[in-house]
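Risk mitigation, structural track. In case the binding assays with adenosine-5'-triphosphate fail to produce interpretable data, a predicted complex structure has been prepared as a fallback.
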Amino acid sequence: MGLSETHGPFDGTLSIVYECPVCSHRIAMLTNRAETQMVRSLGVKIGGRQTEAEPMETLRSSLAVPRDGEPEQAASRSKCPFTGVVSEAFAAPETPEFEWMPEAKARIEAIPPFIREMVQQNVEEYARQHGYRRIDEAVMDEVKGALGM
Amino acid sequence: MKTYHDIASDGGSRILEQVSAQQERLTARLSSVRRIVAIASGKGGVGKSTLTAMLAAALGQQSCRVGILDADLNGPSMAHMMGVRRHVPIPANGSVSPALAANDVAVMSMDMFLPADSTPLLWRAPSQQNAFTWRSMVEMSALRELLSDTDWGKLDVLLIDLPPGSDRIQNLADLLPDLSGVIIVTTPAAVAQMVVSRSITLATDVAGLAVIGLVENMTSFACPVCSHQQRLFPAAPDTRSLAEEHDLAYLGSIPFDSQLARQLDHGRCFVSTSPDSPASRAIFSVARSVHTRLNL
Ligand SMILES: Nc1ncnc2c1ncn2[C@@H]1O[C@H](COP(=O)(O)OP(=O)(O)OP(=O)(O)O)[C@@H](O)[C@H]1O
Ligand SMILES: [Mg+2]
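Fallback model:
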């Protein structure tokens, strides 16, 4: 799939079209203004909440004209129009979810780039399910055994 | 690559958990508040905010610990009426401090978050077009936060000043299942009573709330020269009959008093400065009645 075209952002709506270079099959991803705004209005974070909500978080971050001295809001300053539109609804992780030990990190980096990310995600998913915060060689071995790699 | 169908539940956002965490936060905060009472009316301009301000002051004088939440996000008036418009709510330890008005009444209002009296309440969005689809949702979130993120401390009673409209009573009942009850305000005008009658039915039959009683405001006007009491709406139906019709307590009637309006406009506490005026005496009487009915 290759990026074919983008439309917008226009009034909070944006679409990105991808096309397969072989069969020309096209798929589109789009943000819907009402849905993005609806989730933001609930005061929840897409992707889960990493830190506890600040007092009056939704109220303060949603005001078009806040009072002087209000904390600076994380406005859509993203360079990417797609994330710019939706980023505020997403949780900004303060700390990474997992601590990768150097030996485990080295083993991940030895994996060919095209599947590295997928393997890393599998390992993290396994760690999440087993309640591990730290990923070391022992966890890697467990995953290897569990997935029959 | 994951497809849409491979994403289990909400893709790990745990929206339901986040929403129930919000509810738990609200319950925890309000666990130190003995009674929560909404001041409501289907009709606008009948004196809900005036009654809230004066009732809070009167109950405060009876050594009750009182808080006021201004739930009129679009037309907030409590901070002004209570003389605490300049208060800046500073976040600390997971909450913000309410303003402290006369008689130690704790006040929280939307206008403490807005820069000027002329700033309308406008929510940030990529577009304001079709904002009706989400506006009430963000307002419910803001209301929830004003309740849950204010450091109310220990209160005997929290009064919630609602904006006009019967639907507001229902929204609040959804947000606060532990609402102790509602005080309904009306004027003796026939049109007000017709609208208010509908709000009472909605509050009791649909929202399942306890109505603490009915207050009639702006009943009469005392001539400043000879003190003769003149009814403001001479041919109006009797509010007592409205209360009887709905099997409600009649909590009292408050006369029109231009001094009361002027004092409130300047953020001064009328029942403290003019405790012997007929309006103050009427307010004290309503407060005693509420005090008894809420078992404060
Ligand atoms: N008893 C009274 N005597 C004199 N003025 C009064 C009295 N009650 C209310 N007022 C005045 O009437 C006006 C409307 O009152 P208030 O704002 O309390 O009504 P409300 O029901 O809260 O209105 P809204 O529906 O807009 O929230 C105010 O200017 C207030 O000062
Ligand atoms: Mg009002």
